[in-house]
Design brief:
This protein has 349 residues and is of the alpha/beta class. The protein has twelve helices and 14 strands. The strands form three sheets. It has a six-stranded mixed β-sheet. Strands 7, 8, 9, 10, 13 and 14 form a six-stranded mixed β-sheet that branches. The protein has a two-stranded antiparallel ribbon with strand order 11-12.
Length: 349
């Protein structure tokens, strides 16, 4: 990866729940941040997130803007083509004409082209991250565990060898798993779980999410815990335990703090097993070399690190493979696609 002087570039990843941005200056990532953006509630939410973001980076008017997205999949839009068109229009209107849209490999399109080739633009953020990794790691498996989803992308001999190309085919190939460490409803993970010596059926209600689990385990950083709780309530320990208890028809006061911490560990194991199962499937399909590393990204990169340990592979953080200032390494790993599109826009070779 070249680190020579280059244009000021801001990479943006527009999702259904967050807006993520990365500021690249003189060939290095200088700042990275994430803002809550509940896009399914309307396009004004995107306007609000961008307004906050641009207040942070006063130099944005002089930058090239590189955009990738997954937000076109939200149920705000009747179909993905309409979603891409709406997001492209909004982003161009907010950021200006120096805005381009990632369309796979190192290709960037203007607004008109992006709407025409919407299938290449839709949910391509994983490919940006994987292509940046492929420049530094000959054999690797990207495991990007975000708030909502996990991307599992194989790289062999310096090439991305993913079987899927869009959400539908990536779900079919196990390269996209709808499990994350913040927003996933716990009832989606298991139909029954142990509590103490009793195995209990799980209530199929949105009583708790994975954020409750990883808040109790201490692995979810507060700055990544941006989405509202399932009950729109507090995120302290008592409220978190209460939500977990509801999953098996109990009140928080029906167990000790230790009981609920142990119970959080049960759900943690469900998340790891789900992701590890899909990792093994992708490894086998890609015939991934034994020496391939697992490259972790996302706010749940700690899950990728554990999966690496359990599968006997060396772990590398995405931030270790990109020219990133030390002070923003954690956020660069969390917001890898935003960092990746900035790097690819600055240095397409």
């Amino acid at each position: 990866m070249k680190t020579s002087d280059g244009p000021l570039v801001i990479g943006w990843d527009i999702g259904g729940a967050h807006l993520k941005g990365a500021l690249l200056e003189d060939g290095r990532v200088r700042d990275v941040a994430q803002w809550l953006c509940e896009l399914w509630r309307g396009l004004p939410k995107l306007d609000e997130a961008f307004t906050t973001a641009l207040e942070c980076w006063k130099s944005w008017r002089h930058a090239l803007h590189a955009v990738t997205m997954t937000g076109e999949m939200t149920d705000l839009f009747p179909h993905r083509e309409a979603g891409v068109a709406a997001i492209v229009s909004r982003a161009t209107g907010l950021l200006g004409e120096r805005t381009s849209f990632y369309a796979g490999r190192a290709t960037f399109l203007d607004a008109r082209q992006a709407c025409s080739d919407w299938r290449c633009v839709a949910s391509a953020n994983w490919l940006a991250t994987a292509n940046v990794i492929a420049r530094s790691a000959r054999d690797a498996l990207l495991v990007d565990v975000g708030s909502t989803t996990t991307d599992i992308v194989p790289i062999v001999a310096g090439r991305v060898v993913a079987q899927g190309s869009d959400d539908a085919t990536r779900l079919a190939s196990a390269e996209l798993v709808y499990v994350g460490v913040v927003r996933t409803p716990l009832c989606a993970l298991a139909s029954s779980v142990p509590f103490g010596s009793t195995r209990c059926n799980v209530m199929n209600e949105l009583f708790a999410t994975t954020a409750d689990v990883f808040r109790l385990t201490g692995e979810l950083r507060p700055e990544h815990d941006q989405s509202p709780a399932a009950d729109q309530g507090a995120k302290d320990e008592a409220a978190t335990m209460r939500r977990l208890a509801r999953m098996i028809g109990r009140d928080g006061r029906e167990g000790s703090a230790n009981d609920w911490h142990v119970f959080a560990g049960v759900w943690r194991r469900e998340v790891i097993d789900e992701i590890a199962t899909n990792v093994r499937r992708v490894e086998a399909t890609a015939n991934l070399p034994r020496e391939a590393v697992i490259v972790g990204a996302g706010c749940g990169s700690f899950i990728a690190q554990q999966v690496a340990a359990e599968t006997g592979r060396r772990y590398v953080g995405f931030d270790e493979l990109a020219p990133v200032d030390h002070g923003c390494r954690e956020w660069a790993r969390t917001c890898a696609p935003g960092v990746a599109v900035a790097l690819l826009r600055s240095d397409p070779d």
